[in-house]
Amino acid sequence: MSSTLHRLAGKVAIVTGASRGIGKAIALQLGSLGVKVVVNYANSSSAAEEVVATIGKDHAISVKADTSKIDEIERLVATTIEKFGKIDILIPNAGTMDMRDLAHTTEEDFDKAISVNVKGPYFLAQKAAPHLQPGSHIIFISTTLTVASSVAPGYLLYNTTKGAVEQMTRVICKDLGTKGIYVNAIAPGPTGTELYYKGKPEAMLTAIANAHPQKRIATVDEIAENVVSLAASRWVSGQIIRVNGGMA
């Protein structure tokens, strides 16, 4: 595996939503392997700069961009090319996880979730694709909840967006496969991020952990390790990798 990961040295990656959570862990792990990382963030400039400082300012930059807006996506891609000259790894990680069931979803809720979780990754892939060379990777982020046998009604809106991401993965791999580009998705189970904990009472978190075969919630580093391994892989495309410790 170490020799496989050595293939990442000198690559250039864009990681959206990289100032915290899974995105931060991905950016740091890629940076530790010699990848030049564009640390995208929407609001927290200080957190993004901490990630850049840890990787090293010669190998990382932070770029503020709302990836639900096409003009800002275009600026993110253009800044990457201007700074590093290429894109080898694209990880559209930025997302929202608002809990909404059918009765309590407003049009505003729906439009926001689609814009961030679907429109953003879709058009980021579109705008980055002309700069991707054969052997490059796009790695989307989905969720194991799209196939879990038991899903609470409150996950309806979130799962709707992630179902779209999985279809994007399945079809875009056919499109970009003609250029030798690999397109996959990582689908984590419950993972201890700030976004995941938001709004969940302690009793719910305990129940989720106890329902898991390993009686715990994953760490962000465990998810990131699998993203990084996939970024170094060859001949894997169109796959949804369920990284959930056996939950589903």
Automatic annotation (TrEMBL):
Coiled-coil zones = none
Q: One Pfam annotation, family name?
A: adh_short_C2
Sorted keywords for this record are: NADP, Oxidoreductase
Q: Into which family does the record put it? A: Belongs to the short-chain dehydrogenases/reductases (SDR) family.
Instruction: State the name under which the record lists this protein.
Output: NAD(P)-binding protein
